[in-house]
Specification:
By secondary structure, the protein is an alpha+beta fold. Helices cover about 45% and strands about 25% of the residues. It contains ten helices and eleven strands. The protein has helices at about 5-10, 10-15, 20-30, 40-50, 125-135, 135-165, 165-180, 195-205, 210-220, 235-240; strands spanning about 50-55, 65-75, 75-80, 85-95, 100, 110-115, 120-125, 180-185, 190, 225, 230-235.
Length: about 240
C-alpha cells in the first residue's frame, strides 16, 4: 500500500511506542475538533512532530510566525496594545482551542497572546500545519471553518464595541461567560472562571472604575451576585432585556 507523504517523512517514529509526554500531547490535540478529523496514523505523525509548551502566568507566547498552539490547560488572553500603552482584550482562548493561527498568514501589529494563568499547550510548526492542508482535505476544511468562525466572532466584537453602551457590553460579556463556562447553581448560573474587574474592563473597552460601578448596579438590581470572586447570574432574562 502506498503511504502518504506524512507517513513517509518520519516512518520509524510514527509506529514507535508513544512516550508519556507524547500521550499527553495526543490527549491535548484530541480536544480540538480540528485535529479530531485526522486518522490514527496521521495523528501519530502530528504528535511526533509536535512539542509540549508550558508557560507561567503573564508570559507572552512567541510571536515569530513559526508556531500554532493547541491549548491543553489554562487560559490565554489575546491582547492588542495601543500606542499609549493601553490594552484591549480581543478574545480568550480556552482548553481545546487553537491560538497563533495568524502565523499562517501574518502577525497583526501589537497583538500578543498572554497567559492569564499557567498554561500547557501543544506547539506545532507552521510547516506541519501546511503539510496537513495539502495531504488531508478533511483537516483543511475543518481549519477553514474554524478560521471563518474566528472572523465572524471578530466582526461581532467590533460591532459591539462601536455600537453598544459600556453597560450593554458588560452585560453581554457576563451572559456569554455564563453560557460558555456556566455551572448550574440553586441561585442561577455560576460562571466557572474568575474574571477581575480589570479583565472585564479590558475586554469591553472601558475602565476598571466604570466596570465596578456597572457590576454594583447589576447586583443592586438583583441580576448578579458574587461568590468567591466568581460572577453568579441570578436573572439572565432581565439582563438580556438590556442588550
Amino acid at each position: 500500500m502506498e503511504r502518504t507523504s506524512t507517513e513517509m517523512m518520519r516512518p520509524a517514529e510514527v509506529y514507535a511506542e508513544p512516550t508519556a509526554e507524547e500521550l499527553r500531547r495526543k490527549r491535548i490535540l484530541e480536544r480540538s475538533r480540528v485535529f479530531r478529523t485526522l486518522d490514527a496514523t496521521t495523528m501519530r505523525y502530528v504528535v511526533s512532530a509536535s512539542s509540549l509548551f508550558e508557560a507561567k502566568r503573564r508570559t507572552a507566547l512567541p510571536s515569530d510566525l513559526r508556531y500554532v498552539y493547541v491549548l491543553g490547560a489554562g487560559r490565554i488572553r489575546v491582547v492588542r496594545r495601543a500606542s499609549d500603552g493601553r490594552e484591549l482584550t480581543m478574545d480568550y482562548r480556552y482548553p481545546g482551542e487553537l491560538t497563533g493561527e495568524e502565523a499562517l498568514i501574518h502577525a497583526p501589529e501589537n497583538q500578543l497572546n498572554l497567559a492569564s494563568e499557567r498554561i500547557e499547550a501543544v506547539q506545532l510548526r507552521v510547516d506541519t500545519i501546511k503539510r496537513l492542508f495539502t495531504d488531508h482535505s478533511g483537516f483543511a476544511l475543518a481549519f477553514m471553518e474554524f478560521i471563518g468562525e474566528r472572523l465572524r466572532s471578530s466582526q461581532r466584537r467590533m460591532e459591539t464595541l462601536l455600537t453598544r453602551s459600556v453597560e450593554s457590553r458588560v452585560v453581554e460579556f457576563i451572559l456569554d461567560s455564563a453560557e460558555r463556562h456556566g455551572e448550574p447553581d440553586s441561585r442561577g448560573t455560576l460562571v466557572g472562571i474568575k474574571f477581575t474587574h480589570q479583565e472585564i474592563a479590558s475586554f469591553v473597552g472601558s475602565t476598571r472604575e466604570t466596570v465596578t460601578l456597572i457590576l454594583g448596579e447589576l447586583r443592586k438590581n438583583g441580576w448578579v451576585a458574587f461568590d468567591h470572586r466568581r460572577i453568579l447570574v441570578t436573572d439572565a432574562t432581565s439582563m438580556r432585556a438590556r442588550l
